[in-house]
Amino acid sequence: MASHSDLKWPFRWDLLLRYRFIETIALWEGRLTTRHLCDTFGIGRQQASKDINNYIREVGPGNLEYDKFLKGYKPTLKFKPQVTEGLADEYLHLMARNNELMNVFESLSLNVANVEVLSLPVRDVKPEVLRPIMQAARQQKRLDVDYVSLNHPDREGRIIVPHTLVYSGLRWHVRAWCEKNAEYRDFVLSRFRGIPDIMDESEHGAESDTEWNTHITVRIVPDPRLNPEQQEVVEMDYGMENGVLEVSTRARLVPYVLHLLHIEPKELAEDSTAQQIVVENRSELKPWLFG
Description:
By secondary structure, the protein is of the alpha+beta class. Helices cover about 35% and strands about 25% of the residues. A hairpin with a 4-residue loop joins strand 1 (about 65) and strand 2. The chain starts with 12 loop residues before the first helix and ends with a helix.
């Protein structure tokens, strides 16, 4: 039986991270350049070029091809993920945690004994759906999409102008101007159908989204119905300072923040020990909850 010292990764961990990054960016953005690697990993252009060539030669032969028009590498028609699973969640979480050290540990897929982490079901999003959404968001362009919702389970054509992807802790959505309703709305990524078509530029960018650009501080305190000793326990649980936990967020994201904290925004739970925390500045948040 082989000892642990005899078992080796096929690549060094630092290279494996970069190969996974190469695969993820190429698949989901449709264009990979040495700049992507240089900016993310703090390496030089020559090293980045070497990594890409090594990936093409050793990891995913036939997966990437250089496109002179794009001035970068794009996935071939026979692209098959080798060091990733090819799931939208991999790209979306990479974007969300690009500057966090935690991303390094998660990318390594370390199996730590005595630790169990619950993972939510993956809401699959296809690359051909996500790529045009990302491109339109970066270029502030109109997007012709087919979208389904609980109110409209059949495909409904819409013109939207996306500006930001948002992870609510449970699912991904895109914040976008909706021409049909003439307002900014949230569109769940897993509810897009077909392939979105990129159109012309729009005047409705992120800077015009008032709810998005309004910053709010949610003040969380222990439920006042708890006795002082219980309140002290709750304060320690949530790392409160002077009995208050302040969470800064965008006005549009206030409902998602409360949902993550398991706070019912409309009324107090009957049992004070069930929820344990309440929103102190409920009246200030009301326009963003019920407006």
